[in-house]
Amino acid sequence: MLEFSLRERKLPTGDFAVSEYQYVAFRAIDRPLTDHELVFAKEQSTRAQISRWSFENEYHYGDFHGDTNGLLRHGYDVHLHFANFGVRTIAFRLPAGLPFAKPVWSNYIGTGELTWTKDRKGAGGILSLSPFHESGELNELWDPRDYMDDAIEIRNRLVAGDLRALYLLWLSAAFDDQSVSRDVVEPPVPGGIADCTEAYGTVLEFFGLDPLILVAASEGAPTASEMQTHERQFAAWVEGLSDVESKQLLRKFLSKDAAVIKAETIAAIRQSGSSSDWPTASLGRSFQDLLDKTEILRAERDAREQQKREAAATRAAAEKERERQNRMKEMVKEPKKWLRESEQIVDARGTANYEAAAEMLADLREAVGGDEGEKITHKHAAHLTKKHPTLNRLKSSLRKRGLLE
Q1: Predicted pLDDT at 135
Q2: Rounded to an integer, what distance in angstroms lies between the CA atom of residue 8 and that of residue 30?
Q3: Which among 131, 102, 140, 148 is positioned nearest to 287, based on CA atoms?
Q4: 105, containing H or E segment
């Protein structure tokens, strides 16, 4: 079951307890719901926003009691469930089944809460992922809606036979607080897994993993250059169709369930011999090995980012100093102009302006130099405080630079 009861969860108590929140959503991807399917969807909730393409609701101190698998078998293709007490679930309806042979997909499915539930009839089924996490173990998500598009992308890639999507789901299932040992050995690693950080990274974050784990997993795996892209694979298959075959396929799309026909066609392409098996490498690493390597990669990346920030700050400071030196050269030529400008800045009011005016006077003092610089800037600072006797922040800014007694 994909549903969770709030009554089974214990939330923190006291003044700082977090209120319960759940977000439940379904999306239709391949086609809109039929009239019959829409009626079924509306029977599952009286509060949800329901259309032929989506089903969405938020709960505060409430529960979703609808039939999750039923909704996925009645028109919707993707399900996402988030609750701030640890529940994070995604599920996919695959009308033509998993696009991999059982000896392949069985390496990835069955770990933790990654499960495949086959329909009673036909090849279709539901792939669901719902790892267990204690309340507060994962970083808070402020808008779970942001992750639905990423879940849809995972399904699209699964339907297209992208083995990397299945490996990512295995990673998310292995990151479980209860049912999976960190010593579990990873399944074969698909080639090009590191190239998926951008496409899959947010889904990993949804399940509490650092997207850099894909980079860690890629060490020793085949590269993406060894694989034929799905677009080229599909294009080559289409080019090989005769006119008769093309018309037959078009008639199927127009007369039958287009979603099923699409999934079946993709499966046929993968089995036609025009595509090779996805390259993989069995590396024998444990899930904990991947977590440890990810931590190292994160530390290295953070160090590089810190170096970049420090270098950028040094460049910015040097540029600011060059600008200051150039400004002081102008100040020497016409000090009164800068006295007037500092006064105009103060007249505009605001803490930032007081700081800027005080900085300008300090630079003018240095530019003119000697007793003369001290004399004109102190005199002007006294003038400003007399003109604005209630501006304590201005006085503080001037004192900080030694312009007031």
Answers
A1: 78
A2: 35
A3: 131
A4: helix 102-105
CA distance 79 to 72: 8
Helical pair 370-387 and 335-347, crossing angle rounded to 10 deg: 30
- How many whole angstroms separate alpha carbon 274 and alpha carbon 239? 11
The percentage of the chain sitting over the pLDDT mark of 70, rounded to a whole number, equals 89
pLDDT of residue 148: 93
Contact 214, 196 (CB under 8 A): yes
The candidate with the shortest Cα–Cα distance to 2, out of 46, 52, 64, 58, is: 64
In DSSP terms, 213 is beta-bridged to none
Tell me the three state secondary structure of residue 229.
Answer: coil
Give the residues across from 125 on adjacent strands: 94, 118
Query: How many whole angstroms separate alpha carbon 193 and alpha carbon 200?
Result: 10
- Give the H or E element holding residue 309: helix 287-333
Low-confidence ranges of the chain (pLDDT < 50): 1-17, 225-228, 273-276
User: CA–CA separation, 217 vs 198, rounded Å?
Assistant: 15
Query: What would the DSSP string read from start to end of 212-226?
Result: THHHHHHTTSPPGGG
Minimal CA–CA distance to 217: which of 197, 200, 193? Answer: 193
| pLDDT tens per residue, range 251-310 | 888 887 776 777 677 767 765 644 446 889 999 999 999 999 999 999 999 999 999 999
pTM: 0.73
Residue with tokens 């530390």: 299
Radius of gyration (Cα) for the chain, nearest Å? Answer: 32
Quickly list H helices, 175-257. 197-206, 213-218, 230-239, 243-255
